[in-house]
DNA sequence: GCGCGCCTTTAACCTGAGTCAAGTTTCGAA
DNA sequence: TTCGAAACTTGACTCAGGTTAAAGGCGCGC
């Protein structure tokens, strides 16, 4: 478990897919462009813009347990997660850790800090083997000064995140552990299920229970106890990381 | 204590300082422009841009205790606080209230929700008589599509807010009540004092203790108890809403 | 200057959630 | 297939902070 030296590599031109103008069709560049075309922030951009963007993008892998950055590290761009899971967390001086978010493929992180030109306030660590993109600050800023629509998307993204975070603050301060867990299960189910579901459904926890407990501001022990309370009430069944919700309507009603 | 009907008025052209082109110098318009020129988000804009902006801005007053908007109300723009204090808070179904932020002159709020085109998730209530500006969505969006620098400022503002909120989540989850209060006093002092201060300093609480307690995720009673613990430890003295910090260095050291 | 409300304090008690310390299960590597 | 580490569970105990209730106190309008 060591720090990925992605930030250093950023400054080395050799590692970038740097293609002389007029001949921008190296295989790496093309495949990178294909990846980029799928990220929501960039959709709507022309091929040319994507291609220009790609010059500031680096694809890389990280093994399970690697720390991408620590609190206090300088920020040279933001990350986009292609595959795997990553936790964002802070650690108190006495070693306690609080997970803020568990990132999944398609999520990006680190934008806010990048825009403020400040060091990271949280740390990021992979929970599984991962494949990511690192998008350098300068190409983002260039595109921003060129394209108001791109700005709009960034603004929409930041607003969304602010919204989620406020919802988190609300649940942390207004709901007890049991309700936070139920709320989490319901949201998790909602993410998977395409349509509104009824009756019996199953949810698979994205990672180990300790991490999820921390995400919900609980200890692992308390999380375990609440889960078993819910089993005793006949609301759920637990099979390793899979939670079977016996009757989702009844679970919803048991809130509040 | 009733809801200000600002949102309705928004749609009535008569209430806007609507001046025919080429003759934009009504006294209200001019004084509004003068106000706008001072708000950080708009500085750097030309007189013409400010003037155009002013057409979507409405100045208004609200008495102590008025609710500007409730959770669930539609959002037609954002607010800028000129004078007074306002709390942003959410309320749980069982009547409990959690204050998220106490706004002071120069702060703005409601941008994120405006950009997402969603109803408010929090409520806003004045703590004192207030004077505010309401900036309509459409002029913001217009200016955004015109001016990337303006976008940059909005992005910077949102990033900043995200940053603060994350810091809040950190203190809520990693620090106990005593440390949250000490941290609050130190930050409050920092805001007032121009240079780094030493020794004895005084801080005046911006509003009543119950509200501040809620802002720090504490009950009024617990807040009171901690304050008196700190008095017993000789760290502070309390005189109504004024807290005298006996020795700020010692208070800092008592953290952690 | 009086009296009424609303903050604020204080005390006694309660409880949700954390801590500590054993277990027990699971799972991956050898 | 076994071994060991990590994840999870369980129980007993502790404690920070919430609840309830009853006084103060102080600011403000009349």
Automatic annotation (TrEMBL), chains A, B:
<feature type="compositionally biased region" description="Polar residues">
    <location>
        <begin position="9"/>
        <end position="18"/>
    </location>
</feature>
<keyword id="KW-0805">Transcription regulation</keyword>
<dbReference type="InterPro" id="IPR050397">
    <property type="entry name" value="Env_Response_Regulators"/>
</dbReference>
<feature type="domain" description="Cyclic nucleotide-binding">
    <location>
        <begin position="41"/>
        <end position="161"/>
    </location>
</feature>
<dbReference type="InterPro" id="IPR018490">
    <property type="entry name" value="cNMP-bd_dom_sf"/>
</dbReference>
<protein>
    <submittedName>
        <fullName>Cyclic nucleotide-binding domain-containing protein</fullName>
    </submittedName>
</protein>
<keyword id="KW-0804">Transcription</keyword>
<feature type="domain" description="HTH crp-type">
    <location>
        <begin position="175"/>
        <end position="249"/>
    </location>
</feature>
<dbReference type="GO" id="GO:0003677">
    <property type="term" value="F:DNA binding"/>
</dbReference>
<dbReference type="Pfam" id="PF13545">
    <property type="entry name" value="HTH_Crp_2"/>
</dbReference>
<feature type="region of interest" description="Disordered">
    <location>
        <begin position="1"/>
        <end position="23"/>
    </location>
</feature>
<dbReference type="InterPro" id="IPR036388">
    <property type="entry name" value="WH-like_DNA-bd_sf"/>
</dbReference>
<dbReference type="GO" id="GO:0005829">
    <property type="term" value="C:cytosol"/>
</dbReference>
<dbReference type="InterPro" id="IPR014710">
    <property type="entry name" value="RmlC-like_jellyroll"/>
</dbReference>
<dbReference type="InterPro" id="IPR036390">
    <property type="entry name" value="WH_DNA-bd_sf"/>
</dbReference>
<keyword id="KW-0238">DNA-binding</keyword>
<dbReference type="InterPro" id="IPR000595">
    <property type="entry name" value="cNMP-bd_dom"/>
</dbReference>
<dbReference type="GO" id="GO:0003700">
    <property type="term" value="F:DNA-binding transcription factor activity"/>
</dbReference>
<dbReference type="Pfam" id="PF00027">
    <property type="entry name" value="cNMP_binding"/>
</dbReference>
<dbReference type="InterPro" id="IPR012318">
    <property type="entry name" value="HTH_CRP"/>
</dbReference>
């Amino acid at each position: 478990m060591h720090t990925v030296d992605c930030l250093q590599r950023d400054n080395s031109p050799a590692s970038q897919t740097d293609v002389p103008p007029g001949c921008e069709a190296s295989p790496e560049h093309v495949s990178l462009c294909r990846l980029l075309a799928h990220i929501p922030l960039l959709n709507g951009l022309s091929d040319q813009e994507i291609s220009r963007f790609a010059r500031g993008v680096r694809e890389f892998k990280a093994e399970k347990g690697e720390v991408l950055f620590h609190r206090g590290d300088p920020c040279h761009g933001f990350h986009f997660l292609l595959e795997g899971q990553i936790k964002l967390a802070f650690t108190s001086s006495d070693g306690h850790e609080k997970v803020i978010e568990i990132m999944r493929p398609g999520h990006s992180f680190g934008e806010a800090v990048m825009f403020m030109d400040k060091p990271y306030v949280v740390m990021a660590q992979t929970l599984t083997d991962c494949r990511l993109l690192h998008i350098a600050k300068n190409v983002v800023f260039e595109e921003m000064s060129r394209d108001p629509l791109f700005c709009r998307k960034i603004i929409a993204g930041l607003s969304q995140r602010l919204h989620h975070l406020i919802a988190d603050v609300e649940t942390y301060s207004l709901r007890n552990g049991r309700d936070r867990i139920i709320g989490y299960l319901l949201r998790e189910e909602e993410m998977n299920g395409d349509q509104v579901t009824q009756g019996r459904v199953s949810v698979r926890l994205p990672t180990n229970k300790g991490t999820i407990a921390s995400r919900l501001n609980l200890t692992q022990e308390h999380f375990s106890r609440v889960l078993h309370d819910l089993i005793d009430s006949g609301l759920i069944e637990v099979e390793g990381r899979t939670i079977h919700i016996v009757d989702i309507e009844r679970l919803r009603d048991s809130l509040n």
